[in-house]
């Protein structure tokens, strides 16, 4: 493999890993705090992507500002995340908090199926994209190679910023510290006066926004079609299983590992591209059944 091909693979891998991490971070946050494996999480990715693409397609003919189009991605993700997260947590998750874990898993699966059908009703089967954002942000030349500014700088920077903000929130704010306390023992946290219902709502909404943001940032480089949420659900579960349930920093490392190896396989062994995330997951789980970064004594985020 030539150095130029390796550079392209690394850029593609890091950009893909950044999107995967944003979605996986929300999934592992919900499990870490609420103990729920949210199968519906991939639907948030799809809704964020469709909402962002629709908003950008509406704005693009009406503005010349590349910054405004880029900010439209965030606006669409936040609105979609707040509506979906708040509604689903209040209607379903809160009422199922004391249910058996398997039943909660089935409830989120049912929610995912309904969200998929609603998505088809709203946007149909035609592909949506927000590629205008990539073209307006331009390219960067490094040596003889040309990369899009969006994939080289913007997407990884947003993912790292989201990670830093979430870590700051969890460990430096009052609400975040209450969230960590709820993670360790929900009943004890309640007895200490922590409003665990408020913590659950905040956690689920933040996770939903992160999932929607992953979809919104994918919209400029991907054609969104029905089934996009299903694919991302499976991939994000692979990341979370590889890292260990409830491990946010572990999800970052696992996303990079899966993203870069997957990108390299496109140039070396393209027939393995789809299978690479699951091969990595299986190999890790054979050696570390609880994931790479799980601490056996306590669940942490």
Automatic annotation (TrEMBL):
<dbReference type="GO" id="GO:0005886">
    <property type="term" value="C:plasma membrane"/>
</dbReference>
<feature type="transmembrane region" description="Helical">
    <location>
        <begin position="67"/>
        <end position="93"/>
    </location>
</feature>
<dbReference type="InterPro" id="IPR052157">
    <property type="entry name" value="BCAA_transport_permease"/>
</dbReference>
<comment type="similarity">
    <text>Belongs to the binding-protein-dependent transport system permease family. LivHM subfamily.</text>
</comment>
<dbReference type="Pfam" id="PF02653">
    <property type="entry name" value="BPD_transp_2"/>
</dbReference>
<feature type="transmembrane region" description="Helical">
    <location>
        <begin position="15"/>
        <end position="37"/>
    </location>
</feature>
<keyword id="KW-1133">Transmembrane helix</keyword>
<keyword id="KW-0472">Membrane</keyword>
<keyword id="KW-0812">Transmembrane</keyword>
<dbReference type="GO" id="GO:0006865">
    <property type="term" value="P:amino acid transport"/>
</dbReference>
<feature type="transmembrane region" description="Helical">
    <location>
        <begin position="199"/>
        <end position="218"/>
    </location>
</feature>
<feature type="transmembrane region" description="Helical">
    <location>
        <begin position="44"/>
        <end position="61"/>
    </location>
</feature>
<keyword id="KW-0029">Amino-acid transport</keyword>
<dbReference type="InterPro" id="IPR001851">
    <property type="entry name" value="ABC_transp_permease"/>
</dbReference>
<feature type="transmembrane region" description="Helical">
    <location>
        <begin position="150"/>
        <end position="170"/>
    </location>
</feature>
<keyword id="KW-0813">Transport</keyword>
<feature type="transmembrane region" description="Helical">
    <location>
        <begin position="105"/>
        <end position="123"/>
    </location>
</feature>
<dbReference type="GO" id="GO:0022857">
    <property type="term" value="F:transmembrane transporter activity"/>
</dbReference>
<protein>
    <submittedName>
        <fullName>ABC transporter permease</fullName>
    </submittedName>
</protein>
<keyword id="KW-1003">Cell membrane</keyword>
<feature type="transmembrane region" description="Helical">
    <location>
        <begin position="275"/>
        <end position="296"/>
    </location>
</feature>
